[in-house]
Amino acid sequence: MIRFEDVSVTYDGAAEPTVRGIDFEVPEGELVLLAGPSGVGKSTVLGAVSGLVPHFTGGTLRGRVTVAGRDTRTHEPRELADLVGTVGQDPLSHFVTDTVEDELAYGMESLGLAPDVMRRRVEETLDLLGLAHLRDRPIATLSGGQQQRVAIGSVLTPHPSVLVLDEPTSALDPAAAEEVLAVLQRLVHDLGTTVLMAEHRLERVIQYADQVVLLPGPGAAPVLGPPAEVMAVSPVYPPVVALGRLAGWSPLPLTVRDARRRAGDLKQVLENAAPKGRGEPRDQPQPTRSRQHSAHPTPVGEVRALSVTRGRVQALHHIDLTITPGETVALMGRNGAGKSTLLNALVGLVKPSSGTVRLGEATPHRTAPKDLVRMVGLVPQEPRDLLCADTVAAECAAADRDAGAAPGTCRALVTELLPGVTDGTHPRDLSEGQRLALALAVVLTARPPLLLLDEPTRGLDYAAKARLVAVLRALAAEGHAIVLATHDVELAAEIAHRVVLLAEGEVIADGSTADIVVSSPSFAPQVTKILAPQHWLTVSQVRAALHPEAG
Ligand SMILES: Nc1ncnc2c1ncn2[C@@H]1O[C@H](COP(=O)(O)OP(=O)(O)OP(=O)(O)O)[C@@H](O)[C@H]1O
Ligand SMILES: Nc1ncnc2c1ncn2[C@@H]1O[C@H](COP(=O)(O)OP(=O)(O)OP(=O)(O)O)[C@@H](O)[C@H]1O
């Protein structure tokens, strides 16, 4: 259905092709996963299918890409629109209408479908993606995950034979991601839809893939094959595969279920390795004893009886939260639960309808920005929103000025976080992970005691995630308090001391990471599920227990 014949793409001004030697075929009615580290060209390959590359991006495409026989170089994206539905990485930039219902209908209108068919499909899709209660909503007022659902819904309604999806679950909560993938699988199985999908969080998608196309490194030829075979050689792999490799399981399990069946021996070994009587891993993240027990550490942030109304929606209801120095808190919960709203309230971007938010003596929404940056910093869900200059150097100079920091402070942080970024680069041309690092450096320039991150691992590969974890751990050890809103259960397991679960604007659980995630089917990381009832959270904990001498 989709055929790449010796394809290379060279962007204008680039010395080398971004991708080369791409040669594979996606048969009709298969779901093929495109995997690989950040920046290897996954989006470029997807763009060559939908026609965005080279028609909209510029550059030169050599070789041939065909979709159902149509050459994407000689067909513009609109000449492929009846055939190919595309969801890009940044849904907001693709929305054409204002409300949810109009957006779901738009693609069908442009194809001239009959009104009764359109009506029926809109209703079906609203139900399928849990959007019915949002149907009249202006898209601009939706949460990040709600927007991503609308973007997916709007490509499903015209029933295209081919779906091209670039990280379609990056903003979705774990349950919503499963639902969307189940819907896609049904389309593939029942209607013979062909799906080509790029995704970093392989733990979410690998079990749905018929085949994997791996781009192992920049410019390297793709590796194509059954998921288990490709995962055995891939530089990117989910925790279940990491555990399988550590334990030497062959064939590698790809699902929690398969791994559980293999895990008997490993569990026996670990039974003895776990600290006696507690059944808990030794290096489970915890604030240091002194901090935990120093009678009452002065909180860096205190939220009391906070309610926030946005439009007609009560986004937060009677929230109490205390954040102490040195602790890392993961805010989790369904799409639309109020996580971003709570972070925004902590930096004064939204005002309480009732209740209070305090940062020491200060009230964020009444504090001048120049003072606020020294108390709290937010890295927003879309780091681009924080960046306004034309070059990395100018961005850093502005950050130094705003923070009253010595010139060069921000630039030094950038270099520490991502060596190799040059001064003259436009922030727009940085990869997703690089932009996040720049935004983090900008925020850290003022060394705020409270650091807030909204979905920080969106679009990051496993290596970038590990670097982020190391940076955040070091900050926490220096006494910074960190609050991150995240759907990434693996990240929470790695880094959070505490998890706060929100539902419909209320706190429904607040406790140690181990206590909260172990008891939750949605929020438990893979290792926890595989090794239950033992309480392991991460592969690194298991590795440390198996090889204490290496740690
Ligand atoms: N329109 C463009 N013009 C110039 N260079 C581009 C363009 N789009 C992408 N690139 C460059 O091509 C390379 C591959 O980018 P691409 O977005 O395809 O990778 P990716 O594998 O999808 O990365 P990620 O996982 O971070 O989304 C990057 O170095 C990027 O900077
Ligand atoms: N300007 C607005 N007008 C009306 N409703 C809004 C507005 N902004 C947010 N909301 C609603 O408030 C609720 C909380 O949104 P918020 O962005 O805090 O959720 P979230 O937990 O961060 O979600 P996600 O996981 O999808 O990012 C959602 O139902 C959202 O639709």
CATH superfamily of the largest domain: P-loop containing nucleotide triphosphate hydrolases
How far from one another are the termini? 49 Å
Q: Ranges with pLDDT <50 over ≥5 residues?
A: 275-293
Strand order of the largest sheet: 6-7-8-3-9-10
What is the total tally of β strands? 19
Bound molecules: adenosine-5'-triphosphate
Supply the number of helical segments.
23
Shape: globular
Oligomer: single chain
CATH fold name of the largest domain: Rossmann fold
Alpha-beta content class: alpha/beta
What can you tell me about this protein's structure?
- This protein is of the alpha/beta class and 551 residues long.
- The chain has 2 domains: 2-236, Rossmann fold (3-Layer(aba) Sandwich), CATH 3.40.50; 289-546, P-loop containing nucleotide triphosphate hydrolases (Rossmann fold).
- It has a 6-stranded mixed beta sheet, with helices on both faces.
- A hairpin with a 2-residue loop joins β18 and β19 (506-512).
- Keywords: ATP-binding, Nucleotide-binding, Transport.
- Residues 269-301 are annotated as: Disordered.
- GO terms for molecular function: ATP binding.
